[in-house]
Amino acid sequence: LHHPPSHCFDNSVESIKADLTEKLFSMRAKFPEVATLNDYYLALSYVVRDRVLHRWIHSAHTYFQQASRTVVYLSAEYLMGPQLGNNILNLGIRKQVEQAVAEMGLSLEDLLEQEEEPGLGNGGLGRLAACYLDSLATLQIPAFGYGIRYEFGIFDQQIKDGWQVEVTDRWLRLGNPWEVPHPERRYEVRFGGHTEAGYDAQGRYRVRWVPERSVMGTPFDTPVLGYGVGNAIILRLWQAEARESFDFQAFNLGNYYKAVDDKVMSENITKVLYPNDEPEAGRRLRLEQQYFFVACSLADMLRIFFQRDTDLDRLPDKFVVQLNDTHPAVAVAEMMRLLIDDNGLEWDRAWKITTGVFAYTNHTLLPEALETWNVDLFGKVLPRHLEIIYEINHRFLMEVNRFFPGDAGRLSRMSLFSEAGEKRVRMANLACVGSRAINGVAALHTDLLKQTVLKDFHELWPEKFSNKTNGVTPRRFMALANPGLADLITQSIGATWLRDMDRLKGLEPFARDNAFRDQWAEVKHQCKVRLAAMIRKKTGMAVDPDTLFDIQVKRIHEYKRQHLNVLNIITHYRRLKQGLDMDAPARTFIFGGKAAPGYVLAKLMIRLITGVADVVNHDPDINGRIKVVFYPDFNVKNAQHIYPAADLSEQISTAGKEASGTGNMKFALNGALTIGTLDGANVEICQAVGPENFFLFGLTADQVAATRQAGYRPCDVYDGNEELRAAMGMISGGLFSGGDPGMFAPLIDSLLNEDRFMVLADYAAYVQCQEQVGRAFLKPDHWHAMSILNVARMGMFSSDRSIAEYCRDIWHVEPVPVVVPD
Ligand code: 26Y
Asked: What range defines the domain where residue 340 resides?
């Protein structure tokens, strides 16, 4: 085995400057006088990338030698956020880079702003995957993240006349310096066709899949650095390409356009990320995407396994594969196919290996969000896999029947196929049966999983279940997003907290320290000034950093209840108009988030927010006591400006609906106080920071279920509450829709007739709780003390803690330290 380059990088200011000029020349073919800001961004990125790759090469070399168990994280989404700043932070070269670019007449901040983030995810699930890669690297765990290199990620959001408009996300337009393509390491992925059964030369029963078409998957590698360690890991994203750029046979037959057509069809597979909450859009292509990246990833894993081993029974000792929700669950069938059809194993042996390798994380309780596939469609795309799933199901249901004899209801609930209406494959059931561990993402979520959607599986295999409460990386969401706060914390308790978040506890005594509280307040104020400038730039609106910044940023969804927030704003507005509540502090209500393009009510909620903003912001009677802002195009990059500037974090989902939430953690770690329901991880956050430092309101999950059971009638709530009637009347009267009373009718009707998410039931409690928030904000000393205590007690919400628990309880993997010469 050869040793990797022991070449060392000189991180002095002089050397970084020299490298930058060299990269401008070698990678951009420019000299300084003609270079654009983007050329400089790219050149600096290449300077940083060399140093990142250096760590990756040493890590790969070390992992290869040690061959200890490796984590494979399979996720259809990764929301990585901008890379340059994070890599500079993790390399520990911020000061030198800042000075180097300054001496060349540039500002690091401007260069960082150039980067277009890869928006390869919808929201929480994709961002969680990115935080977990950061923590895997930092905890020195050998790991691969595998996913899809979408050419178009989540759409860019613009606001036109108050409505959301979707614009294609062309994130690759100016080049992506962070990835390294490996066309030499591509795999063929087959689709469609039929199967043929027969006996091989040894007389063994074998099935042959005769596919109808195939595409190639090419990997693009992005290294992810650990913090404070030499380790790096790889995010490997697959891009679909045609097998041959020209199908020569078709070409010879004169069918040139068919050949080009096939190429286009193949490349469609990784063309676009699908939004969640999108009814039925592009289902076939989505199934193809899922199988495509799973097939490439498992083939790659086996290739790496066979580099050092020959005995597939040892696969579970060498790899554990975590399924990030059911999107990659077809991996269970693909693993069986690889073992049986391609490697000649018997079923039982293959099943033992398969169920020794996989583990499954569930991220939702909403029954309509559980993935299922029409059996006919599935069979057309993956005929062999459908057969395998039938066989898994047959054997599984026999086992269920041994444990619970004659329980027909249970058999039909646990079957991998639902037979009510059209026959469908249930991916959550497949994931459960194929995995040796199953987890939810917050304590309440895991409890509810066991009681509801996965109840039968829990009764069969209670030992497979555990909770792994989500976490977020303090590197990106504190050190990078909020350097002022991070520096203040480091000055007070030392620097170790960034890798050991329990150290934040050391901040508790400072909550009583007046001088410290003033510094804390000053940092927050600076963050608000910065956000106000961003708001001005993006929307043209002036907001006052001395007002209470009350922020709700997340995907727009009925269960997240942005409309509950709006109802409170309208109520507050009406009171002010009546001369009431005049002692309440002035507030800036900030919203951000994307609605799925086909989710009509969610898009209407955005229109309602912008409609209310239009009226309230321009009402002379209000005189700035309320401002409402919709911050367009919420993404990771914007989020890094937004979380640090919040006084109040809105976490107001209907109890029992938000699996965990992770924005709630990012806010609280930046010193925002939370107004929230007992939902998802809010329950644990409230417990950790203490209920006296948390604004709790609303029905509990049990009460929500009981209220529903008892025949909840939203119109009764409406009839019984004068302020609620007035607020809804202002909406339906057309005040926020330029006099059009019809515009918001669908929203109002859904609240009055069904109110699936109990907005009206929680309205009064929410309004009252918001009054309490207002009163608390008027006592700044106490407010800032609560803010400090929140940060001091939030240590457990580091993704390092989450990953350490996965390592200990599910993956059984150990750290492998990497030594990098430098
Ligand atoms: C298109 C499709 C099948 C699909 C794609 C993405 C379906 C769902 C999703 C994304 C789901 C998601 O983001 N779930 C969130 O996961 C977070 C991380 O665990 C949780 O904190 C959050 O509560 C949950 O809504």
From this structure: 67-82+117-468
